[in-house]
Amino acid sequence: MARRRRFKDLVLKKIDLISMTGGHRQDGPSKAKPAEAMPKITNVAKGEKRNYTRFSEPKLQVKLADKVYTTIDWSIGGLLIAGYDGDLDQGGETQANFCLVGGDRNYTATIRVVRFDSRHKTLAVRFTRSTMDALEFFRNLMKQHAQRAV
Description:
Layout: H1 2-21, E1 60-64, E2 67-74, E3 78-82, E4 93-100, E5 107-117, E6 122-130, H2 132-144
Antiparallel strand pairs: 1-2, 1-4, 2-3, 3-6, 4-5, 5-6
């Protein structure tokens, strides 16, 4: 039982590291791999810059500065929030609380604003630091809703 718990903790820590680094892919050669050994990285969709699978369901509620918003989609790396009318600027960081729509358990993460679209009132954010509970929450959601990926 203790071995299983240690393995679970290790996996969650690795997920946390991935989410904090943004899943950065190195485009060029490194000291470990010369250019000829680098695999060609291509995105499925033209111009796609996301590193994580997005899910449109289930919807999440996100609380920012005492106002609650609903997600358009989400991934382990971040959220796309609908109806945003706050004052966060691109690059700005803040704490966010989130839960399933209608859920009673809240999770916390530090987010960084990637983009604000004033015309569509959407806010794209990336997680910069998450609690272990939040990472486990997303991992469980992804397992349950894998067939609903965007």
